[in-house]
Each structure stands twice: as C-alpha cells, then as structure tokens.
Amino acid sequence: MNTSKTIILIDDDKKFSFGLVAVLRRAGYQVHPAYNGEDGLALIYADKPDLIISDIMMPPPNGIQLREELVKNPQYRHIPFLFVTARTAQTEKEPGLESGVDGYITKPFDVNELLGRIQTVLRNVETTHRSDPHGANLVENHF
Predict the structure, then answer these.
(1) Model pLDDT for residues 59-96, shown as the tens digit of each residue
(2) Backbone φ and ψ of 98, nearest 5°
C-alpha cells in the first residue's frame, strides 16, 4: 500500500476525476482532486504533495502554466508532475514535455499503465533522495 503518498489530481472533467480518484485511492494513495488550475495550486501550496497529476486544457492556469508557476519556486519545482491529457499530436505534446514533466499519458489510457508510471516516478524520486538527501542534484525529467 502507498498510504503515505499524496497525489493532487487536477482536471476539469469531474466525471474523469471522480473515476481516477477512486482508482488511485484503491491503489492506496491519498488523493486530493481539484477541478481547475487555481484550486490545484492552492492545494499544492497547502499540502505539498508527493506527486501532481494534471490535465493540460483546463480553466486558468492551464496545466502548462501551472507547471511553469511551480518551476519558479524552489520549494515546489521538484515535485514529480505527470500530464494526463487528451492532447495526442506530437506538436501538442511538445510544450508539456518541454516544461520538464516526469511523464505524459494520453487519454484514454490503461489504468495499469498510469499506476506503473506513478510507481516508477515515485521510486525514482525516492532513489534520488536517498543518494542526495538535500536534493541538490535532483533531475527534472525522469524519462
């Protein structure tokens, strides 16, 4: 179980979010949903999570703007960040990938793929912190 890991899920599609929150909670994660970028940022600042999962296209700030805002702040820039989005064209993916996210999964997706990606990203962060507990050499991108 992953009960010590907190995920903030930011997506304006409430039906999608409700389903994904249920899946993530069954997998043992503590999940806090937000339905727009502004509420997502407030949750992130209030409860520095272990992982952020965000849609790209949503009410401001959109996912890319949200990521850019977090990268400006040393306290939040190293929180692992995954995009889960319907944007599938390579030209649409590039801004997200260039923002230094830890993963980009397109909707629809296999839930096991997402859970595997989450485990990999969190494991990479734990390994990095064990080798450098002060985070001086954290890698922005875990691809």
Answers:
(1) 889 999 999 999 999 999 999 999 988 765 555 555 55
(2) -70, -20
